[in-house]
Amino acid sequence: MVQIAVVSPLPAVRAGLRALLGSAAGHRVIAESAQLELLDRPSGAVEVVVIDAADLDPEELVAFLEPGAPGEAGELNEPDRLPGIVLLGPITGDEQLPALLGDRAWAYLPRDTTAERLVAAIEAVVGGLVAVDPSLAGRLLARGAPGSSVSAAESGGEALTEREREVLQLVALGLPNKQIARRLGISEHTVKFHVAAILAKLGAASRTEAVHLGARRGLVTL
After folding, report:
1. Domains of the chain, residue spans
2. How far apart are CA 176 and CA 143, in angstroms?
3. Domain 147-216 - what CATH class?
């Protein structure tokens, strides 16, 4: 029996997910919440969290995924009990998902996916795989492809946030993620998330290339 938690700010979406999964043999929803940080953790182990992530703040997802994070998220984030993630989108900034989710099993589907595809994605995640719906795969790969660096740089790319510019400046100083995290008072995992976002927005294939592109655009001082 695959034990599942469901997260969505919309009661109708949560009800729909409960109905879809309740009709699938071998699947059971044992927890649900309107927000990740408020997710109720029952005593049974949650194997997969299905998240309606279309309007989710990426940093909220980062905090939830942080292994050993303190507070409410701690129980699900123990290193040996990391649940698989099924994200329902489309999600703004989805080119960051591969770097954000790292080695964790995950799936990415449209919010209006069918019951069959949702169940298949959950089964794939339980099996330790990554599954992306074909309707989102092209968007995900095209926006995150390192080979697009020249066109992204020439077009100006997507604007960096203030925090991303801070991280890029520290990368330009040669600091590793651990030292950047210490300087900014954030977790190393969050730094990795910001670096992935910077690479995607600048169209860079490496940290060094990101620094050079950032310098050309006046985003960093060398």
Report:
1. 2-142, 147-216
2. 26
3. mainly alpha
For the stretch 128-170, pLDDT in tens is 998 999 888 776 665 544 444 333 444 455 678 888 889 999 9
Cα–Cα dist 2/127, whole Å: 11
CATH number of 2-142: 3.40.50.2300
Rounded to 5°, the CA angle 91-93-96 comes to 110
**Pairwise CA distance, residues 116 & 65, whole Å:** 26
Let me know: does 89 contact 182? Beta carbons within 8 Å: no
Q: What is the pLDDT of residues 35-71, one digit of tens each?
A: 877 776 554 578 999 999 877 766 677 677 665 543 4
pTM of the predicted model as reported, rounded to 2 decimal places: 0.65
Long-range CB contacts (within 8 A, 24+) of 71-79: 71/37, 72/37, 72/38, 72/39, 72/41, 73/36, 73/37, 73/39, 75/41, 76/5, 76/39, 76/41, 76/46, 76/49
- Which residue in 96, 116, 94, 110 sits closest to 24, CA to CA? 116
